[in-house]
Amino acid sequence: MRIIRKNPERISTLPNEPVDLVLMDSLLEKYAGKKGSMIPLLQGTQELYGYVPKTAIEKISLKTGLSESKVFGVTTFYSQFRLNPVGKHIIKVCHGTACHVQNANAITSAIMRELGVEDGATTPDKFFTLESVACLGCCSLAPVMMIGEETYGKLTGDSAVKIIKEIRKSENK
Amino acid sequence: MSKPKIIVGLGSCGVAAGAGKVYKRLLEIQESDPGLFETGKTSCIGMCFREPLIEITDDKGKCLYGDVDDKKLDEIIESHIKNGTPIEKYAVHSDTFSGDEQDFIDNQEKIVLRNCGMMDPESIEEYEARDGYKSIKKLINEDISGDQVIETMLASGLRGRGGGGFPTGLKWKFARGNKSAEKYVICNADEGDPGAFMDRSVLEGDPHSILEGMIIAAYTINATGGVIYCRAEYPLAVKRLNRAISQAHEKGYLGKNILGKEGFSFNIYVKEGAGAFVCGEETALIGSIEGKRGMPDKRPPFPAESGLWNKPTNINNVETYANVPWIILNGPEAYAQHGTEKSKGTKVFALAGKIKNSGLVEVPMGITINDIIFKLGGGIKDGGTFKAVQLGGPSGGCIPASLGSTIVDYDSVNATGAIMGSGGMVVMDETTCMVDVAKFFLNFTQEESCGKCTFCRIGTKRMLEILTRITEGKGEEGDIEKLIELADQIKDSSLCGLGQTAPNPVLTTIKYFRSEYEAHIRDKKCPAKACNALLTYTVNEENCIGCTACARVCPTKAISGKVKEKHFIDQEACIKCGACFDVCKFKAIDLQ
Q: Is B235 helix (H, G, I), strand (E, B) or coil?
């Protein structure tokens, strides 16, 4: 799944939000000394924090002995990794071929209008992050979006907005 | 009379369509009346367009119901289970009468998908009951040598299903020939083509067949370790693979001295990819397993000589491995009976786009594109006309409807300028703009280019800029020639398949739909009415009821009009974003 990022990330512009790095210890221990474990390490880190914090990159570098630039290079190479904090719910609108020819653009623009954010951005209340991805593999249900582990198919702009409204409503109770 | 059994399809597509709810309801009914029926789970049966699906097996045979919801489920149980009368109007396929989609299933020949939708993918016993692990037992019990296995694979004519079409037996022969104490077998399950989901269905529906295929490959080339490189975006597939691996360990199909064969030890683990299309390329994939940026390396040396951790390595994709146990068990002759002279066996295609029956089909090589689209696919959705089919994803090309009689095998498809690829087939109708499609794919490859080769990195970017200009009505004479020139240079100067094939969508659309490019460039018109910048949005005065929805949504306030009065779009202020068109419920926005 390719996540389309509008702005390339640079290490100097990354946020410096305080995170509890102790959480990473068991992860680092699990992969200590194992070759080829860079990607699982980063995946584990992202699972912990929702993104890969700058300080986590420094810590991985320290523990694995690889330079920070190497770790950063791997992180930015793969679209799975985020370097910025995200909202509570990530809305992934599929823009694979099948969804594209079935007008996935209309889904993204309807959600953009509803949330008032650009594609790739997070709402000010940190509730939703809107992303475009290439192919969730549910092409027969196109156009499709995924929120959390849930996949929603055969969408229209209206039905997509309705789903988002319902999520917000159910959590505001 | 034995109890009837009700099976629910719980693949990703099924779950997305609501199969989880149906299964829950089924369990509730069972709890209230435990003697009535047995339940079971299975995975994708390929008929994604009719999900959720349930299958009832009783004394009379099997009956498959589609588009099931709670209400229909209650009716089906009342009529079919309690009274023994199947509800024909809900049935899609049946052993005793003809369901809605009888042809869709009966026109297929299933080898790769032999178990998908037929058994519980989380049960090793069910796999064994369907001839599972018999092939590896046969090799060990009859003491068949690796060389003999290679002979069998060569005789079957199986070619790599990842897209390249390299003979599998030959690949194994090279890997076997290289001596090393450590060797690896890798399964490429990094299905990154947008529009392709064949591998996901096999991984979710029949994980053991892939393990068995890999075990046979390991037996043949004397490999010591195995890795399945699977997309992290397929969480269900990863879960089922891991479960299958631990079951195979318990039963002695993996681990030390497999099935009592002294010295044959082999383990498999699943490596989750992190989202990079280029990692489908074998050297990039190896780099990624090693924890590096997934960038391709120069070949030779090929992985068969120096692959993972610089050891001899054999890489095949999911579909290729799934074929292997069947070939060993049924013999290469049986396999070679399917298909054409140079392309043996069957191929799984993922049908998607503007087609009625989107889903998975497995057909013999040599079937025509028209047969796939009209006989199996049911034709074009919503009464549209078949315009083109995109084969092979971002590396492939668009085959126009006029070439619909082309047969699908590696060589015939290549002759059109497209490639077989892994088997994604996205069908397009008259509302699809071919320039836009070319731009879409180039946008994809441009972003996915790893940046190692200059032409791939910058050339695709320049091509994308030209295509973007054309779709925005800023095309110039000479643009088409410039695109072709760049395309040729990118093909010539790129190291890996990504760059070498990235221009294919552009080249094939120019070849078959040049007039559409010219209409964009010269007349500033998009014949398919898909390129927003070339359209004029006007209010249809007959249909407009003055609901003000368009005026409220217009980002530039270009739309004026009072409640219950006809609205008007100021063309000067209109930025052609299409928001009014999307939001209008009365077909009152015209496109020209």
A: helix
Instruction: Give kind and range of the element (H or E) at residue B268.
Output: strand B267-272
Flag if A36 and B359 touch (Cβ within 8 Å). Answer: no
Identify the band that residue B1 occupies on the pLDDT scale cut at 50, 70 and 90.
Answer: low
Q: pLDDT tier at B195 (50, 70, 90 boundaries)?
A: confident
Pairing of strands B359-364, B568-569: unpaired
User: How far apart (Å, rounded) are the C-alpha atoms in residues A100 and B353?
Assistant: 9
Mean pLDDT throughout B271-282?
A: 91
User: Is A141 close to B351, i.e. CB distance below 8 A?
Assistant: no
Distance (Å, rounded) from C-alpha B356 to C-alpha B381?
5
Across the interface, which of A38, A98, A141 has its CB nearest the CB of B13?
A: A141
Give the ipTM of the model, two decimals please.
0.87
Name which of A36, A43, A153 is nearest B272 (Cβ-Cβ).
Answer: A43
**Chain B contact probe: residue of A138, A149, A151, A163 with most B CBs at under 10 A:** A138
CB contact under 8 A, B293 and A151: no
**pLDDT computed for residue A1 by the predictor:** 41
The predicted model gives A38-57 an average pLDDT of 94
Domains of chain B: 5-101 (3.40.30.10), 124-335 (3.40.50.11540), 346-429 (3.10.20.600), 434-522 (1.20.1440.230), 535-591 (3.30.70.20)
Answer whether residue A11 is part of any domain. no
A135: closest chain B residue by CA:
B194
Mutation site for B-interface testing, chosen from A140, A161, A163 by largest number of B Cβ within 10 Å: A140
What interhelical angle do B460-471 and B479-493 show, nearest 10? Answer: 160
Predicted confidence (pLDDT) at residue B345 exceeds the cutoff of 90: yes
- SS3 state at B224: coil
Domain that holds residue A73: 18-77
